Give the backbone structure.
Amino acid sequence: MSLTQGVCAALAGDRSYRRAANALGFLLCASLLGYALYAQFHLGLDPCPLCIFQRIGIAALGVIFLVAALHGPRGWGSRLYAVLIALAAAATIGVAARQIYLQHLPLDEMPSCGAPLSMMMKFLPLTAVIRKVLTGSGECGIVNWTFLGLSMAEWVLLWMLALGVTGILVNARNSR
């Protein structure tokens, strides 16, 4: 069976192909996180707070894909995984979009750099940390890595869009 036939079977609701598609989603999320760690520890690119939240979103999406692959539910169970995938992907897309917005601000409009995330986690309640991080700081607007003209946040947005839509389509269909 060709790759195209396999994708069509998964989209048609075949349970074994749904499991394979979810496993592939997990592997792609794990690969994205692996590259983020490579960029941090080998290339020396320290993640900003928004980058860390994007990693959390990718990890959450990967866990959902993994559980869906291992579980292989039918009916409403698969649709529940589609909703969870949509929520994780949408949240990560929102964080990436915020960082992209900050990256495209003129220098004179960029917010000032704030305290490091570890310091904020130590002294502020979690809700205040999340609010502070999502408003962004100057370090989140700096682009220090690009591939094909796109920043890492732009790549995260594209990957989350692709994984989210595919995960929804694969899991929202009824099983045969």
Observations:
- The mean pLDDT is 80.
